[in-house]
Design a protein that fits this description.
With 103 residues, this protein is mostly helical. The chain has one domain. It has three helices and no strands. It has helices at 2-21, 42-74, 79-102. Helix 1 (2-21) runs antiparallel to helix 2 (42-74) and helix 2 runs antiparallel to helix 3 (79-102). The chain is elongated. It starts with a helix and ends with a helix.
């Protein structure tokens, strides 16, 4: 089960990131990088979510590569990889929040 989840998390990150990165998600209450500033204007929404999408896509791809490399070497996914994935997600969110704050 850990192997399945180890690969599922980065794939979900990638799938969620693509529509954001390509500005396919209009302002809404359910999906996107939703902070007070992004709701103030459509322009900020699309710029902030596009940036967040690219950050999330990068985090997902790096996480997937780390997971693949570990699985290839150990035939398993360790807790360290799960922490790495979480860290990549948190970094993507923090960088996105800093960017939106500058808009």
């Amino acid at each position: 089960m850990r192997v399945f989840l180890g690969f599922l998390v980065p794939v979900i990150m990638i799938v969620c990131a693509v529509p954001l990165a390509f500005k396919r998600v209009p302002p809404n209450e359910m999906y996107g990088f939703r902070v007070a500033k992004t709701f103030r204007s459509a322009n900020v929404w699309f710029k902030g979510n596009q940036f967040a999408g690219w950050c999330l896509l990068a985090a997902g791809l790096v996480s997937l590569l780390v997971t693949l490399n570990e699985f290839r070497a150990l035939s398993d996914v360790t807790r360290a990889t799960e922490y790495f994935q979480l860290g990549a997600l948190l970094v993507a969110a923090a960088v996105s929040a800093a960017y939106v704050k500058m808009l």
